[in-house]
Design brief:
- The complex is a heterodimer of chains A (705) and B (82).
- Chain A is of the alpha/beta class.
- Chain A is elongated and about 95 Å long.
- Chain B is an alpha+beta fold and 82 residues long.
- Helices cover 16% and strands 43% of the residues of chain B.
- Classes of the chains: A alpha/beta (705), B alpha+beta (82).
- Chains A and B meet through α3, α11, α12, α17 and β12 of A and α1, β3 and β5 of B.
Amino acid sequence: MKKLKVALIGNPNSGKSSVFNGLTGLNQKVANFPGVTVEKRIGFSKLKNRSGEIFDCEFIDLPGAYSLYPKSPEEKIPVQLLCDPQNELHPDLTIVIADGTNLKRNLFLCSQIIDLKIPVIMVVNMMDIVRFKNIEIDFPKLSATLGIPVIAMNARKQEGFAELKEAICSPYNLSDKDFIDIHSYAPEVIETIRQTINVTSNYNAFLVANNLDLISNLEMHEFKKEKIRKVCEKTNFNSSQMQARETLDRYKVITQLLNDHIASPENPIRRSYSYRIDNILTHRVWGYLIFLFILFLIFQAIFSWASYPMNLIDSAFSKISSGIIKTFPGGIFRDLLVEGILAGLNGIVVFVPQIALLFFFVAILEDTGYMSRVSFLMDKLMRQFGLNGKSLIPLMSGVACAVPAIMSARTIQNRKERLITILVTPLMSCSARLPVYTLLISLIIPANYILGINIQGLVLMMMYLIGFVAAILLAWIMKKIIRSKERSFYVMEMPTYRAPRWKTIGIHIAEKVKVFLFDAGKVIISISIILWVLSSYGPGDAFQQIENKYNSGTTGLTEKEISTKIQSEKLEHSYAGKLGQLIEPAIKPLGYDWKIGIALITSFAAREVFVGTMSTIYSVGSDESAKFTVREKMQHEINADTGGPRYSFATGISLMLFYAFAMQCMSTVAIVYRETKNAKYPIFQFLYMSAMAYLAALIAYQILS
Amino acid sequence: MLKNCYLSELKLGQKGIIESFTDYELSLKLLEMGCIPGEEVELIRIAPFGDPVAISVSGYILSLRKDEAATVKLRIENNVVS
């Protein structure tokens, strides 16, 4: 059995993932390339050739690229792999996928890879549209001229896979033709590199000179790198000029080649169906209305449709918990299992419906080609705030939940715009803030009507508005602060509209869910356990004393009342309780006492925990009417300093503002880390949001009280 | 009669031939996307707020911002009204 490493490469929108899925089926896994947030998709398949020989193939789906001159982090990956024979992912065979309706631009990348002198198979994809447009491609001649196998394919309809698999298992010869005479561009540099390191061809050497810092193999041999750098300096090797010259020369050859082998009738853009669809979808009125409708649909889905499976998950977990409580004797082990691990797991799994639903929509929008129209429509508006047109989808989704929203920011190619989107999305009022808001609003705002408008509802709407305005404003500030090393361009292909590929979308959703469960899940469950320890253990023998106090009999209380009292006092004397008391001086200016301090600490797990903690502190049982009773108890709580109610208007507003801005969500912290691969960003985000929350709460309380 | 103008100055439906670029770094990106000197481009769409724009080039649709389009020098036929 022969092992074979096969890399798939191609322009964005060339249907590369369809080919990858067709070759590997569901036998694939996704990770990040080391150190960057670029998805690395690997799949496996066993192929048999005519003589019965079996090939054990490992396919790697490289990020879409227009050339081997990287203009984005995604485009750097193919260069690193293909130009460095020492790289562990360097392929034995490369498959270039080309969009058959646009061979000119697609052949550009293909010609670069042919000149690298590594085995290449070219796949001409989207043959259905090629035929529809009456484009005639002379495949035998094209193959002969390029010196490589060329295969016609319609990956959507599974056409051409047999031929491709056959070609993969067949022996291949390297093309002996060079598209362009690269040696004459910089003979001395190319010779030096060929003598210094292991490269496959003159063109490989030339690309090494152009991308010196990308070849990881050279990092270990600094003297070799220095040698190459010196010869580049000596010969005035100017990478930009070389690149321009090469591009022009290549296109000259490609234009000639297309004239010889391809007959393409005049296909006026204005008669194409994509153009006609765009007349509506990018229309000054309809375009925005339709986009608004799509946002509304997404919002509905993750806000309301997702609630049904989420409730199912919650009730399933509570059944498991009560089952465990019944079967196992009480003790540390059971408590850790139920209140630490299971509660943490529940907190992770409950996100799955929202993530799956959001990515269902995002994948459709991407796959059909609509996403680039969103950029086109919204760019002028969003650019001013340092955001991308596509940022609207994460921002709107953030109203339901920041976790899937931040994951969906991957559709934004521009690094800086994507980062800003991730950093401000948690400011949008997510659904976990809703229980906090409703509880506090019912405490401090009378349920009156002014001009037929419910005031409580009005205040709630204000809270959502505050979140949105804060997000936009912060984005604008970050646009000024964050410096981007790389210059980025908007220049973007507007792909032809295509029907969504349901299988690709299904695989995409499964990937996102898996990544969340396993990568972010680890962080979430660790924090969950830490928080459990903090709130279930206390210093000294305080807990024992509480137990003794209530278990001595004769308290005149029912068993249930006793257990809630015990819970409440235990929380007060736990580490979390001690911490709450410790931070009281710091939160007093905001109008809070140590009880609220405890809630602030425990609700770092998730904002809605605030309500639960309040119930425990005010020792109300966790039955159906808990919300009402906790509301009443809180209403009657007196502020010892002022003599007025603890939850005055000032404190209530201050608390709501705190929850509006504070990053009180460990899942968001975890996902930001996963999506930026840099601890710097979640830490920065946590700090700036906490600072904002503290300041806003402080100012509000000081003015209002 | 021929005259020069920038891609950003084209009217909807107007065509031109790419002649040169004023921004070297951006030109490298445009070149690899198939915007090569000698190639014909047509302005086929303008976003509702006047920016970005979409052009047809090498048989596909490319969108770019107006300030990016302002770096592409074109040759156009002066008296053609589209």
